[in-house]
């Protein structure tokens, strides 16, 4: 039995196989993006095995990219612990460890582009209001009252809030 025949399959692998066979993609590149605000749990281990395992099986790459966007709750102790846990599970990331904060300028530019195209807006609903507006399995959600602000108003609000990140 060949390696491909022996490999277990599931809907994720089926999608990857179809994309590779059709030429939509030529390589597999995954990532594991934990927040460095605590120790890993069993769900993280499952995600590590899925993302690193798929990259390994398809001779691709898997990035370790820390979602370090909340500096109040993050600590280097968790970064080191997560790196050790990934290696303890038998995996190693491709290239250097990455950090979302290294890409804030690019993310900021993307947000501006989306707002200018009318594809994003600044929403000022509280978490409780978001839950109310979200809807349920049986009741449809409703649009935020902030959704229809002008591009100019959204840009001004975004820049006012974005200055906290830089």
TrEMBL record:
UniProt GO BP: glutaminyl-tRNA aminoacylation
The entry's keywords: Aminoacyl-tRNA synthetase, ATP-binding, Ligase, Nucleotide-binding, Protein biosynthesis
GO cellular component, one term: cytosol
Domain Glutamyl/glutaminyl-tRNA synthetase class Ib catalytic: 28-160
Superkingdom of source: Bacteria
Pfam families with a match to the protein in the record: tRNA-synt_1c
GO molecular function: ATP binding; glutamine-tRNA ligase activity
Enzyme Commission number: 6.1.1.18
Keyword Ion transport: no
Tagged with keyword Oxidoreductase: no
Family per similarity comment: Belongs to the class-I aminoacyl-tRNA synthetase family.
Protein name stated in the entry: Glutaminyl-tRNA synthetase
Lineage, highest ranks first: Bacteria, Pseudomonadati, Pseudomonadota, Gammaproteobacteria, Enterobacterales
């Amino acid at each position: 039995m060949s390696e491909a025949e022996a490999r277990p399959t599931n809907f994720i692998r089926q999608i990857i196989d179809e994309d590779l066979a059709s030429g939509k993609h030529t390589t597999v590149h995954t990532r594991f993006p934990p927040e460095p605000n605590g120790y890993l749990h069993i769900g993280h281990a499952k995600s590590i095995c899925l993302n690193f395992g798929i990259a390994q099986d398809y001779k691709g790459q898997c990035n370790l990219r820390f979602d370090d966007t909340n500096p109040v709750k993050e600590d280097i102790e968790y970064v080191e612990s997560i790196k050790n846990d990934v290696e303890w599970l038998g995996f190693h990331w491709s290239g250097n460890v990455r950090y979302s904060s290294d890409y804030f300028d690019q993310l900021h530019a993307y947000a501006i582009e989306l707002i200018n195209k009318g594809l994003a807006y600044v929403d000022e609903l509280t978490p409780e209001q978001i839950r109310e507006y979200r809807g349920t399995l049986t009741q449809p959600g409703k649009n935020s009252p902030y959704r229809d602000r002008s591009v100019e108003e959204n840009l001004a609000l975004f820049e006012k809030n974005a200055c906290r990140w830089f």
